[in-house]
Amino acid sequence: MKKGRYVVIGHPIGHTMSPFIHSRLFALAGVDAEYGVLDIAPEKLAAEYDLVLRRLDGYNITIPNKQAIIPLLDKIDSKARMYGSVNTVLNRDGAAEGFTTDPDGFLKALEYAGIPLNRRAVILGCGGVARTMAYEAVLSGAEAELAVRRKSLEKAEKLAAEIRSALPNARISCIDVSELDGEIDTLINGTPVGMSPNTDAQPVSDAQLSRCANVFDAVYNPLDTVLVKKAKANGANAVGGISMLVWQAVVAHRHWNGSSYDVSDIERLCADAAKELENR
Fold first, then answer.
1. What pLDDT was estimated at residue 15?
2. How far is CA 55 from its chain centroid?
3. Of 53, 137, 157, 196, which one has the fewest beta carbons inside 10 Å?
4. Out of 2, 44, 66, 75, which one is annotated catalytic?
């Protein structure tokens, strides 16, 4: 049986954790495969598609190619179609099928951290990752709020309207983050605030954070952001984004090879990925 060939594509893509995580997942599943990195700008994607990408067994896509890849594919699954975003492609029997594993990665990360998503959920931001989180919060039955800076309120309202249109029973509203108050069951940071090198920044005030029972921060560099550290100090259940990064990769392997894993192995991989990130 031939060795499988997989890559991650993006632009730029010099410091991706994908090879570390995916190589470990192939080894855990006993799949003979190699995993590399390709830097492809969106304007060169079509030219590289038949030349390179069609010849692979599968690949991951990161910024800024998650939308640009879609017109080149033969089909995409229903969730990828709903989000208008693809981060995983399977090439099989001459056809290329696209998936998005970000939503399931997010949900798995929350599940194994014991963070609920069926009560009051405040999502900070309204960009790409926050959009995914907002949809999944609504689909999980949460009363979702998009909390953004004043200049982003119009964009947030458009996202809320989009979600209400797609999901008629959606409970979702928007608020200026400075006006956020009351008890919050789950606070979700879908912004880059607190990401390296600006590690002293946090997206909400200390007073607002003190009223949060659970906190999930999609930022994974640093491993524990100021937001996560302070939430833990308050006694909240808080976790960073490295687990979401690993779990979305696990879902990609399920699409590629039907692989399944022991939770203990994935927990160990999350810890090892965290160490690898620290070493870098």
1. 82
2. 26
3. 196
4. 66
